[in-house]
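Before surveying the methods themselves, it helps to consider a single example record, giving the amino acid sequence and backbone structure tokens:
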Amino acid sequence: MPQPSGPAPAPAPTRAVALVAVLALTAFGVLALLLALHGWGPFAAESWLHDWAVTHRPAWAVRVAGTVTDLGTGFPPYTAAVVAGVLLARNSEPGRRRIWWLCGPVLVLALGQLLRRGLMLAFARPRPPAADWVGASPSGYAFPSGHAFTGALAAGLLAWAVLRTARRRLALSVALLLGVVAVAVGLSRVYLGVHWPLDVLGGWLLAAGWFALCLALVPPALRRAHRVEGAPAGSADGGDDGGASV
């Protein structure tokens, strides 16, 4: 019988990831448009949340927020990306595929930083008043938040690697913890007075869209090969102790 012409349909997981990328990046674009139409100034709700944070900052809470916010910049996020690469590489076959998995997370994080910085410079949204800042003085403009973007992207990369390589119960617990950390990093930027709330939301949306886009572009054959190679022993029975398939 004649074979149908045309390209084969994309696998369902690929389509789902691509849909997440489209939705997140579209939401980010809409948010940026709304801010631009508003003159890049804060909305009333943003000002209210900012004022609440400024007036509810005991010393101990500021110290905690300062510690949490440091997880979204410099050494910690790149360490998370390196660990993600090591986890993925050790569960793949030797050769080019192993090199790809080892370097991929760091590359995704580094390129994402370039994208985020380019958008930040293009939008040039002013930060809250400097008199309200606590801790180290931030650099650059406000939207999208660099700490929120970096923390969420690094957490997503590490969570994805853990979900693909560790046993399911452990993987889900680690992924949940990483999600909490990513949210905390973003909220700390508002609490410390250096970002408006929508800056943080924009950072999260851009991180989700960029991560999903990069994941959708990974060749399906490479994903399938890694999923088979990376499955821990006993995962074939689909029990709770099997490897998570993502």
